[in-house]
Design a protein that fits this description.
mainly alpha, 16 helices, 69% helix, elongated
């Protein structure tokens, strides 16, 4: 992600879907594949422009561009290029489906996607999940998760986070509510954390967290660490980290995907492709 939260992929000036289609066809026609030519087109076009190229390519050649790319490329380059050809909301939908398909559930992917998307992005990915995968996302989440973690994800799926400004009196009240629901008492009232972290705007939550530090003498992230466990703790902390800095949250995820022996290529591709056109703040 570029400094200042700017997207790294922007709409190409003087875009011409027909010329791009010709370059791509030439790169894949005959013996061998010009991978550099493919990258130079698809990595420098916006998602909307790539969809236009996909349609124009089929109109010009009667061929499916994604199928051609799959047949000509391989490995992680194929995976990255095919991901680039997906509309952003469908990429999210497919990532969620993949995380829940088969034996076991990849809760990290559920957390990464659902805890970081805007109301509009959640609405779009839910529609894509229904229309393209013929499944109901909320039903799948409910069947694959449980307890307070399930409730948190279903709450996030409603896409009802307030997008207004800061109410100082509400911030003071809810900072105290969070303290009372967690550190002040024996046991934790997770529903209070759920309500506040899911429904308040990022600006409102930031002010609430600032006041919380004065009350509790530690930040909300640390309180969640001590009061909760497992997937619920990780999801709640993901929301807190995004409130502080969404770009930093994804930077840390990228770092972890490449740290140590080997690389988590699936995570690396998913984050880079899904965030490359997003204005991060």
């Amino acid at each position: 992600m570029a400094s200042g939260g700017a997207p790294t992929v922007k709409e190409a000036a003087n875009f011409n879907a027909e010329k791009d289609s010709e370059v791509l066809r030439k790169a894949m026609k005959g013996l061998g594949t010009d991978e550099k030519a493919i990258i130079n087109v698809l990595a420098y076009r916006s998602c909307e422009q790539r969809q236009a190229i996909k349609l124009k390519f089929k109109s010009m050649y009667g061929r499916d561009l994604v199928k051609d790319l799959k047949s000509e490329l391989g490995g992680n380059l194929e995976n990255a290029v095919v991901a680039l050809m997906e509309p952003c909301e469908l990429l999210d939908a497919k990532s969620l489906r993949s995380a829940m398909k088969g034996a076991g559930t990849d809760e990290e992917v559920l957390i990464e996607v659902l805890c970081t998307r805007t109301n509009a992005e959640i609405d779009a990915l839910k529609k894509a999940y229904k229309s393209e995968l013929s499944r109901d996302l909320e039903n799948d989440i409910a069947s694959e998760t449980s307890g307070h973690f399930k409730r948190l994800l279903i709450s996030l799926l409603q896409g009802q986070r307030d997008e207004g400004g800061v109410d100082e009196s509400l911030a003071a009240k809810e900072a105290q509510d969070l303290y009372d629901a967690g550190e002040k008492q024996w046991g934790t009232d997770e529903s209070i954390f759920n309500k506040i972290l899911v429904t308040r705007s990022y600006a409102q939550l930031q002010r609430t967290f600032d006041i919380y530090v004065k009350i509790a003498k530690q930040d909300v992230y640390a309180a969640i660490q001590s009061e909760m466990s497992g997937d619920l703790r990780d999801a709640m902390q993901a929301v807190v980290r995004c409130v502080h800095s969404r770009p930093m949250y994804f930077a840390e995820k990228l770092y972890k995907s490449m740290k140590g022996a080997g690389t988590d290529d699936t995570t690396l591709i998913r984050i880079v492709v899904s965030r490359c056109e997003v204005i991060n703040n």
